[in-house]
Specification:
Blueprint lengths: L11 H6 L1 H14 L6 H14 L3 E5 L2 H11 L7 E5 L4 H8 L4 E5 L20 E4 L11 H11 L2 E5 L7 E2 L2 E2 L6 E5 L13 E5 L2 H10 L4 E3 L2 E2 L10 H12 L1 H18 L21 E4 L3 H10 L29 H9 E4 L7 H12 L2
Amino acid sequence: MNQKNIKFNVLDRIYEKYAQEFSEASGRVLKSAWYILGNEVATFEKAFSQYCGTNRCVGLNSGLDALVLAIRALGIGVGDEVIVPANTYIATVLGITENGATPRFVEPDKYYNLDPYQIEASITPKTKAILPVHLYGQACQMDKIMEIAEKHGLFVIEDCAQSHASHYYRKMTGSFGDIGCFSFYPTKNLGAFGDAGAIVTNNDDLAEKVSMLRNYGSKVKYYNEIEGVNSRLDEIQAALLCVKLAHLDELTEERKKIANRYIQGIRNDAIILPQTAAGADHVYHLFVIRTEKRDALQDHLKNVGIQTQIHYPVPPHLAECYQHLGYKKGDFPITEQFAAESLSLPLYNGMTDEEIDYVINAVNKV
């Protein structure tokens, strides 16, 4: 097997595939001389809300801003608690703490998502919301989560940063809760060509509140009704996202086929392959395997030219920035085990059969 150089992610293959469409979209915006909150943003918001099966979409500057402004729009702040998976990316927790609220961490299930059977034990009189994260591209068990939220009168904020096009029993992620938060960071399944994000919701009042918050707290220019920020999806990114959105289903199917090749081809007793829960859909934003010898495996793959990443090496409860929350190693053993064992293999649109087979053979030879 001749050594190859397999990068963890390759973005230019999508660009090359739809280069003409991207060129036309960006040229149209540049020629229009309207670059902020114009027709392109409105067009994308309408298209994406329809795709997600929601009434409204509000384009924002980033996925983190989507989380921050969603929580703020719901009136969650100092003294309030939000239930969140312990094994999520730090941005999910930052959305909570940026508003002065407190995260209440809950362990994941075997699918790496928030374990619905452990939620109720963490609910207190201060709990205001549940924030499930559709991690790695797999939908959470939203029926159970919504049942708990309704029982306890809690908001549900979905973090869909990694789950574009993912369903739970044919219903799109982001459409279950009060509000869904998306990132369009370039590596996402629906990625922009820079930072971008959005919220989706069926609540018109929430959509209007976020629309004001993203634009200095105003509906009409220079008339500021509330304290807001500058977090606007720009016209060029919106136009480019519309191009990708039109091809998202085919891009998603391609990712699933690559993941299935991995699942069928990797035959190594030391490797734990990803599983998918009943009713859940997995769009494989990341293909995450686990092994007790993770670091040795990562070194081996690096030596044969395969780039991998760890999602995520430090759980939020052990992050230096959250030392003041008072958590210590051992408080969330399942999360910490996942952090020590998880490794993400290369998976990207445009990946060739030869590249996929090279990765499979390398993993099998450890």
